[in-house]
Write a structure and sequence with these properties.
By secondary structure, the protein is α/β, with parallel strands linked by helices. It is 51% helix and 13% strand. It has one domain: Diaminopimelate Epimerase, Chain A, domain 1 (Roll). The mean pLDDT is 87.
Length: 172
């Protein structure tokens, strides 16, 4: 019975209480995030993409799909996997669930383990619960950047492109 109530409550939150992502992250906050991504990518050859979504589409809610499933789908749809050195990282934020997911391409996944990503996500939980989305995303960008700087420093790749993915956060 408890699982059914949780599932029903989640369906209601996503259906009726969805927040407008542009209110949670106004233009000035999105500009600060884009600047943080650009500054980060100047130090490594990796590509960081941020995707913020108010609520899951009904097709995901109906199946009780986790935020991770949607993040993996957006990783493909936004072509984060399609970087020259396979070192793209998607930082996905789902406002209604206060969930953050990090999806990394093959080259990054070989260097950073799943538990390391999970520890990163767990460290941001308090900011998410208190609605400090910009703070959580800036912290996530910083933590991802540290890993990318260690594994893919700028100049290590002979033909590292300057910017393969737009730095501006996407709002879904």
């Amino acid at each position: 019975m408890g699982h059914w109530l949780q599932r029903w409550g989640r369906q209601l939150r996503h259906r009726f209480l969805e927040r407008d992502a542009s209110h949670a992250l106004p233009d000035d906050a999105r500009q600060r995030l884009a600047h943080a991504i650009a500054a980060s990518e100047a130090r490594h050859s990796g590509q960081i993409r941020v995707y913020v979504e108010s609520a899951l589409p009904w097709s995901y809610i109906r199946r009780d799909a986790p935020a991770r499933e949607r993040a993996v789908m957006q990783f493909g749809k936004q072509r984060v996997w399609d970087t020259e050195h396979n070192n793209g990282v998607l930082i996905y934020l789902l406002l209604t669930d206060h969930a953050i997911e990090i999806v990394a391409d093959r080259a990054v996944s070989r260097c950073v383990s799943g538990p390391q990503w999970q520890a990163m996500v767990d460290s941001l939980a308090a900011d998410l619960r208190s609605g400090q989305y910009e703070k959580a995303l800036l912290a996530a960008i910083g933590q991802v950047s540290r890993h990318l700087e260690q594994q893919f420093p700028r100049g290590a790749a002979p033909t590292a492109p300057d910017n393969e993915l737009d730095d501006q956060p996407l709002i879904g």
